[in-house]
Amino acid sequence: MTDANHPTSRAGRRVLVTLFVVYLVLLAWIVLWKLEVPWIGDAAVRSRPIKLVPFVASGDAGASAPIEVVINLLLFVPFGVYLGLLAPSWAWWKAGGVLVGASLVLEVTQHLLSTGSFDTTDLIVNTAGGLVGLGLLTLVRRRLGGRTTVVMARFSVITTVLAVLAVGIFVASPMHYGPQRDVVVSTPAA
Fold this sequence. Notes:
Layout: H1 10-33, E1 50-51, H2 66-86, H3 92-113, E2 118-119, H4 120-144, H5 148-172
Parallel strand pairs: 1-2
Helix pairs in contact: 1-2, 1-3, 1-5, 2-4, 2-5, 3-4
């Protein structure tokens, strides 16, 4: 007989999947629109820089600010935790492939929508954040053993609810970033 509150049960798995979806929606909203009303930039139809050299300034774009790198890393830690809870039998490289793919989708989408530009630094840091989440889950599993899923599921419920409340407070507050300026590289007229 399975306990409906146990995360490996059907009901528990549905709760985890629902929390993961809520997290993914918040993640997309944060990455693409910085918690602002969704918009498409005017530069979406123009060519814009793609930063292929990570962690350094290029001819078209500056290096990522250290705080942005840290924030991107932290934003993706829950992705790794959720992935590890929902697909515990996956090898790290398979989960890593999903993390790279998800980060790639977000980077390409923000570039196409002109809400940001494609940056390989973000791709690397986002993936690293997810791998950190997987690593943390592995450490917790070593410590808690069979209770890991229950404890981490409860922790996920609490942190997701707190994240949704924080987003609600931010959206309701007068503090906003405002839409990012379109990312366009102007070329001098010949």
